[in-house]
Design a protein that fits this description.
Blueprint: H1 13-20, H2 27-31, H3 35-42, H4 46-60, H5 67-70, H6 74-77, E1 78-79, H7 84-89, E2 94-95, E3 99-103, H8 110-122, E4 133-138, H9 145-155, H10 163-172, E5 173-177, H11 181-198, E6 200-206, H12 208-215, H13 223-245, E7 249-253, E8 255-259, H14 260-264, E9 273-277, H15 280-286, E10 289-295, E11 301-307, E12 314-321, E13 324-327, H16 345-359
Parallel strand pairs: 3-7, 3-10, 4-5, 4-6, 6-7
Antiparallel strand pairs: 1-2, 8-9, 10-11, 11-12, 12-13
The structure holds adenosine-5'-triphosphate.
Adenosine-5'-triphosphate (ATP) is lined by residues 104, 106-112, 140, 142, 147, 254, 320-322.
Length: 366
């Protein structure tokens, strides 16, 4: 809240410009000054300086929210993924105002999921969309406009039968290619303005892991702490903006998989599958909802709801088609309650579940 820009806290344009000249840009910057300093940098009387500080602190103080306000109809609190079984588990879709992470190995469909969500966000509300723009931060140069259009037309053939609608959809997805940690940080600094100017209802960061893993060799002393600080800074900006604009923020992340002792020498894990979130424990706790995607075989993949404040641990099978992510059926059950013998991979994943929770118990994710 304190990182809110002064312009958005009701301070006049003129006064903002005056304060900006002294590097006072956010509520936090202003409230870190004494009234005498505010008088000096803003050219105000003592009374007016106090009034300005009071007004800014009121704007950035977190409002009290009652349970009644939070208990909104489903459609107002979630962003439907258009995957009915996943939406059912998540009680309507990805929760607005929070961070969802899609984690998994390379090529498993994380970017496909992000592209699909981008199309969905631009759709009218009558089709389950958010009727909004998208800010898509691409750190891997993986975003493909052709794929976006192909997916939109294959998934919603009727809606996108007109070229005009395709162009309208494409013009609402704003892609920012940021290939270094500093570029990502700079983009996040400007994200509040970008969200407002693009009327974004969805923010995607694909991927959070690739740039930090490229730039921080965590075997070198000090790098793990620096990486952790950077991620904490990114997470706090994204959390604030997700909350402030009540929009979903979706991040992708890689996963390091160790297979038994041969694959990583992890003590105590025997030969069971073993997965560790690539960015360590601090990051792991930052994310509100975590979907892990994983391979079953070359074609078949799974989405695991590994962390959610509202959904049970669950596994859903999917394939990637022309129209994006397609679930194998909408009648899959939560872990431990599966009745369909066709869902046997869930039993295999019981080992995975416990391995995962143990695995993220260290901050040393590679
Ligand atoms: N038009 C398409 N039709 C069917 N499948 C496709 C199509 N385009 C891409 N795919 C599938 O999507 C996979 C790539 O998925 P994606 O780019 O989302 O991977 P990712 O998880 O983001 O990987 P990374 O972590 O390396 O970025 C390909 O391996 C392919 O199987």
């Amino acid at each position: 809240m304190a990182s809110k820009k002064l312009r958005r806290a009701g301070v006049s344009q003129e006064l903002c410009e005056l304060l900006n000249r002294h590097h006072v840009e956010s509520c936090k910057d202003l409230l870190s000054l004494t009234p005498l300093e505010v008088m000096r940098v803003a050219g105000l009387s003592y009374q007016n300086a106090l009034a300005l500080m009071r007004s800014v602190s009121q704007h950035c103080a977190p409002p009290v929210t009652t349970l009644l306000e939070l208990w909104k109809p489903k459609s107002e609190s979630f962003f439907s993924t258009s995957l009915p079984a996943l939406d059912d588990f998540l009680r309507g879709g990805l929760p607005l105002g929070t961070i969802t992470e899609v984690a998994g190995p390379s090529g498993c469909g994380k970017t496909q999921m992000c592209v699909m969500l981008s199309v969905l966000a631009t759709l009218p509300r009558s089709l389950g969309g958010l009727d909004a723009g998208v800010v898509y931060i691409d750190t891997e140069s993986a975003f493909s406009a052709e794929r976006l259009v192909e997916m939109a037309q294959a998934r919603f053939p009727e809606h996108f039968s007109s070229r005009e609608r395709v162009l309208q959809m494409a013009s609402r997805v704003h892609v920012f290619r940021e290939l270094t940690c500093q570029d990502v940080l700079n983009r996040l600094d400007r994200l509040e303005v970008d969200i407002i100017s693009t009327k974004a209802g969805l923010v995607i960061l694909d991927s959070v892991a690739s740039v930090v893993r490229k730039e921080f060799d965590t075997t070198l002393p000090g790098n793990l702490a620096s990486r952790s600080n950077l991620l904490t800074q990114e997470a706090s900006t994204l959390k604030y903006l997700a909350h402030q604009f009540n929009i979903p923020v979706v991040l992708t992340n890689q996963i390091t998989t160790y297979l038994g002792n041969g694959g990583g020498g992890v003590p105590g894990e025997g030969d069971s599958g073993y997965v560790i979130a690539a960015l360590g424990n601090t990051w792991s706790h930052t994310v509100n909802t975590r979907l892990i995607v994983q391979y079953v075989d070359a074609r078949q993949r799974q989405i695991v709801i590994a962390k959610s404040p509202v959904a049970p641990y669950a596994v859903l099978n999917y394939t990637i088609q022309k129209e994006g992510i397609c679930l194998d059926g909408d009648n899959q059950e939560p872990m431990g309650e599966a009745r369909d013998p066709g869902l046997q991979p869930i039993r295999v994943r019981t080992e995975f579940k416990y391995s995962l929770s143990q695995a993220v118990g260290t901050d040393g994710g590679s």
